[in-house]
Amino acid sequence: MSKEITSRAADYSQWYNDLVLKGELADYSAVRGCMVIKPYGYALWENMRDALDKMFKDTGHVNAYFPLFVPKSLFEAEEKNAEGFAKECAIVTHYRLKTDPNNKGKLMVDPEAKLEEELIVRPTSEAIIWNTYKGWIQSYRDLPLLINQWANVVRWEMRTRLFLRTAEFLWQEGHTAHATKAEAIEETEKMLHVYADFVENWMAVPVIKGVKSANERFAGAEDTYCIEALMQDGKALQAGTSHFLGQNFAKAFDVKFSNKENQLDYVWATSWGVSTRLVGALVMAHSDDQGLILPPRIAPLQVVIVPIYKGDEQKAMIGTKADAIIKELKALGIRVKYDDNENTRPGWKFAEYEMKGVPVRLALGARDIEKNEIEVARRDTKEKRVVSLDGIAQYVESLLKDIQQYMYNKALVYRDEHITKADSWDEFVKLLDEKGGFISAHWDGTGETEDAIKEKTKATIRCIPLNNEPEAGQCILTGKPSTQRVLFARAY
Amino acid sequence: MSKEITSRAADYSQWYNDLVLKGELADYSAVRGCMVIKPYGYALWENMRDALDKMFKDTGHVNAYFPLFVPKSLFEAEEKNAEGFAKECAIVTHYRLKTDPNNKGKLMVDPEAKLEEELIVRPTSEAIIWNTYKGWIQSYRDLPLLINQWANVVRWEMRTRLFLRTAEFLWQEGHTAHATKAEAIEETEKMLHVYADFVENWMAVPVIKGVKSANERFAGAEDTYCIEALMQDGKALQAGTSHFLGQNFAKAFDVKFSNKENQLDYVWATSWGVSTRLVGALVMAHSDDQGLILPPRIAPLQVVIVPIYKGDEQKAMIGTKADAIIKELKALGIRVKYDDNENTRPGWKFAEYEMKGVPVRLALGARDIEKNEIEVARRDTKEKRVVSLDGIAQYVESLLKDIQQYMYNKALVYRDEHITKADSWDEFVKLLDEKGGFISAHWDGTGETEDAIKEKTKATIRCIPLNNEPEAGQCILTGKPSTQRVLFARAY
Predict the structure, then answer these.
(1) Does residue A104 surpass a pLDDT of 90?
(2) Which of A87, A152, B23, B117 has the lowest CB atom count within 10 Å?
(3) What angle do CA A86, A88, A91 make, to 5 degrees?
(4) What angle do CA B257, B263, B267 make, to 5 degrees?
(5) Long-range contacts of A387-393 (CB under 8 A, 24+ apart)
(6) Of A193, A255, A243, nearest to A219 (Cα)?
(7) Would you state the pLDDT for residue A259?
(8) Residue B168 with chain A: CB contacts under 8 Å
(9) CB contact under 8 A, A87 and B67
(10) CATH of segment(s) A12-69+126-286
(11) Is the model's pLDDT at B1 over the cut of 50?
């Protein structure tokens, strides 16, 4: 095997990079901080996108597409939002190249083609969208607007990591407009639940739903709801956010509507998004030292069949049997591949599909067919079992469901074992350094304390869980009174 | 009706804009030359994208995603390609904004955040992709690479039109790599046929398949194949192109592979693309003075049911019957909407769905139900018919197929009536001015003559049809000998 990967124990970060590169999910590119999403990684993203897209449509949303560029004057209209993203903006200043007179065959930016107003490559689309909504909304009859966009965005990051933090990434951003505050908050919460449903039931990654502290809010939001997942190294990862934007953008872009009483009021807004970052979360939540482990519901390939044969006669016989199995599996909607490539041996194939995280591997030999049997191997537990060929398709279908559930349960057990209460500063620091995971602790509710904790430990408040139980206590850092515990963690 | 549109006869160009805006396909944006694709227009594009995507996958292609930005040094590597796009490039020069010290609340480009190397916003992705392929291709075993990308691209156009020519547009671009010239040419032609199949059988727009003259070739291609469609004003529209790129990009990016004989050779390339421009073609090919006419296979909504009632009792009864019909239609995979909105009257609804080009409208009243009947109206011919409610779903299913075929046939008759032979210059000019359409004429084969004809008449060679019959003749402009006719037209 040429494709050895670093173990988690040796270097978790390198293990992750190895998985992404050798699992053929993505590759580095010639553009600083930007990655290439390879076909296998993109197929995974397509499955995630399609599942989410259906959930959005089932909850009444429609897709649209808004421009990539945001004129600077629009970008700066909502001040907090602008301030939050100003330091990470790619900026288009010119619209033409010309031949470089001093450098044969080379091009240079044409200084005469300078834009009157610079264009920001969207880091998020509230500004351009709310400027557009102004023309679409006059009356309560035009509301709600429930629009989603699948797009690329750019945030200039100094330190990048494949999928987790890249200068350009793919995402969806929902932008909704409502007549009342209550309705906008309801939408914000609804989409949080949609995200949680997707991440838990499709990605098999348990999440904690909560709201962010003021420090961690989206720039321009009144409230940011989030789902937080736990990776195998005990660090948290924000898997999706849903923002209640109040009337901030409506005021910045002067978007008013006449309500049923014929009075003018500013429109209420939400926005919510998940990105290709989820692919990174998926990799880190489930995989092992042999490669990726992908949950069946979104795995590009759910089943691979590898023939074990000597000579053309055996190969033909196995091929015929495999065809019949494939037909049955496909009839059940299962994504299956038959790999009879002659350039590689079965052992190499086994390692390759293990690396790629294909949930179920079937190995079929001539003697198996004689015995009316087949070898079934699960990727997640590595368990192998010889089963009857009778009803094999139904067996595999049921196994894929078991694997999906097993992966979720395993991640849930790990996650629940890694939510620990801390009641003193020393305990807090020790838990962070030695155990990791979420630490449930009292906090005095101020941004200053949160900043101080972050500076001392690199841990941040991941969220204040929804339906948190009130509990009187003392802030672990300042000792000041607190009314509830919040969840801290080091995070991606 | 507030939504009146300009007639084709009065102003074809304004008619088109009216349809796009009032049919709610797209809207202008605050960004020069960029449009907003509205939900109805985007749903149409999604149907087109999904159909094409399936055709690409069925022919062995996979999707991937490459960076939005192309560093200038890569962009200029293939000189012809670079030269062809240099004048229409949006260029990122800075990566940060900062507070403007002289202008409270405003931002300015931070001069200290200037990029060492400028980034071009991709106008097409050959450069970034072939630079990536270099790392992926070593041996003939790595070939062919059959990759497609769905993405946004930017080409800075001075004069823009909704869908037809916008600074940013959505498209797909296939980029394939092959071991032999023959295989690359085969791929180029295969994808041309895929495009023709899609445009004819899904969009109901007949096309002529051909190759471009050297003047009209894609910058960096050895040969450009195209499909050309005819709009109702007699102007042609290039609906898709497929390029045989030879070894140009492999040489520019030094992409070699060892062949079966273990010799190093440059890789052969193709690229092919269609864009949101197709939405413009669809609008102009079929619609009329009352609004859009969309072909059933890609219409976002195929059937609308409008209840005609007085009072709640009738409304409830009609609603129950409509539910049953909708259930049957959905079971047949038909996209249907029931519009019982009380804020608008049936007449308004009829006009609205006519504007939006919904292929079939069903009107259902209390008396219809008594008589076990329903009124069925086709959008394309405006024909209305009262039919039995028994088997209504099957009737509608069959009608949708008829409409699809009828729309294609109608466009085909128009197109075929507008391919005219011209054997003299006077005849050529007269046909262009008075009849329009494609003009089949002899041409001496030189770029100079083609340029001269374009300058005199604004007509260009749209293509040299595939399987063109050889025919000796004389160039209509220069009188020099010619071996075949080619198709000229004024074009979008």
Answers:
(1) no
(2) B117
(3) 80
(4) 30
(5) A389/A321, A389/A325, A392/A325, A392/A328, A392/A362, A393/A325, A393/A328, A393/A329, A393/A331, A393/A332, A393/A334
(6) A243
(7) 95
(8) 67-69
(9) no
(10) 3.30.930.10
(11) no
CB B65 to CB A72 under 8 A? no
pLDDT over 70, % of chain B: 99
CATH architecture of B21-67+126-286: 2-Layer Sandwich (3.30)
Place A106 in a pLDDT band, splitting at 50, 70 and 90: very high
Rounded to 10°, the helix B39-58/B277-286 angle is: 110
Interface contact A95-B89, CB threshold 8 A: yes
The verdict on B43 touching A (C-beta cutoff 8 Å) is: yes
CATH architecture of B419-489: 2-Layer Sandwich (3.30)
Residue of B nearest to A112 (CA): B87
If you average pLDDT over residues A259-286, what whole number do you get? 97
B123 interfaces chain A, CB cutoff of 8 Å: no
**Residues in B 170-209 with any Cβ partner in A closer than 8 A:** 170
- Chain A contact set for B46 (CB, 8 A): 63
Look over chain A and give the mean of its residue pLDDT values, rounded to a whole number: 97
* A 338-377 → B contacts, CB under 8 A: 343
Q: Which of B29, B36, B92 sits opposite A121 (nearest CB)?
A: B92
Determine the pLDDT at residue A1.
42
Q: Report which DSSP code applies to A104.
A: T
* Confidence class for position A374, pLDDT limits 50, 70, 90: very high
Interface test with A, best of B25, B34, B36 (most A CBs within 10 A): B36
pLDDT category of residue B306 using cuts at 50, 70 and 90 = very high
pLDDT in the model for residue A158: 86
* Percent with pLDDT over 70 in chain A: 99
- The pLDDT-based confidence of B104 (bands split at 50, 70, 90) is confident
Pick one of 3.40.50.920, 3.30.70.2740, 1.10.645.10, 3.40.50.800 as the CATH number of A303-414.
3.40.50.800
pLDDT of residue A404: 98
pLDDT recorded at residue A467: 87
Look up residue A309 and give its two tokens: 């044969």
What is the reported pLDDT for A105? 84
B36 contacts A64? CB cut-off 8 A? yes
Q: Do B43 and A66 touch (CB under 8 A)?
A: no
Let me know if B58 is exposed, middle or buried by CB neighbors in 10 A (0-12, 13-18, 19+).
Answer: exposed
Q: Which CATH class is domain B303-402?
A: alpha beta
Question: Using H for helix, E for strand and C for coil, what is the string for A77-88?
Answer: CCHHHHHHHHHH
**Burial of residue B65, with CB atoms counted within 10 A of its CB: 0-12 exposed, 13-18 middle, 19 or more buried:** buried
**Which among A42, A92, A152 has the least Cβ separation from residue B63?**
A42
The helix/strand/coil state of B17 is helix
Instruction: Say if residue B2's pLDDT is above 80.
Output: no
The 10s digit of each residue's pLDDT in B234-266 is 999 999 999 999 999 999 999 999 999 999 999
* Domain edges within chain A: 12-69+126-286, 303-414, 419-489
Task: Give the tens place of pLDDT for each residue, A406-430.
Answer: 999 999 999 999 999 999 999 999 9
CB interface of B with A, residues 431-450, below 8 Å = none
Domains B21-67+126-286 and B303-402 share a fold: no
pLDDT at A21 over 70: yes
Report how far residue B414's alpha carbon sits from residue B206's, in angstroms, rounded to the nearest whole number: 10
| Measured distance CA(B452)–CA(B456) in Å, rounded | 6
Contact A30 B132 (CB under 8 A): yes
Nearest C-alpha of chain B: how many angstroms from A308? Answer: 22
By CB atoms closer than 10 A (0-12, 13-18, 19+), residue B487 is: buried
